[in-house]
Amino acid sequence: MPKVFKGNIKVGTISAKFLSDFSNVDPDLLIASYAEASGANPQTAHEAIAPGGAASVSITATKKGLLDVMVVTGHEEESGRLQVSRNGTIANDEAIKGPMEWVYTVIE
């Protein structure tokens, strides 16, 4: 799974949304994982997405730490659109193909 560092994102309610293309063969999985820099207060949220559907997950980051957002697809050619937002404001919004992991440093 390709891992891409997307930069800093400030503390707050961080949401990820995946819009699965209708042409995808089977369900996909959206996962958000966060922990404070000390390793404390880990959070994980996940949702399955049917082909052509959409799903969202959210975590609440209150201190600096690390955030991973992953889309797990069953096939390399499956695609869709991944969006990450903080307190309702979109930070990243891109089309992706195959499984993907975006990594963020959470800052205060």
What's the short story on this structure?
The chain is 0% helix and 69% strand. The chain is mainly beta.
Could you walk me through the main structural features you see in this protein, from its secondary elements to its overall organization?
The protein is an all-beta fold and 108 residues long. The chain has one domain (3-107): Immunoglobulin-like. Helix content is 0%, strand content 69%. The chain is built from no helices and 9 strands. Strands 1-9-6-3-4 form a 5-stranded mixed sheet, with no helix packed on it. Strands 5-2-7-8 form a 4-stranded antiparallel sheet, with no helix packed on it. It is elongated. The model has no long low-confidence stretch (mean pLDDT 96).
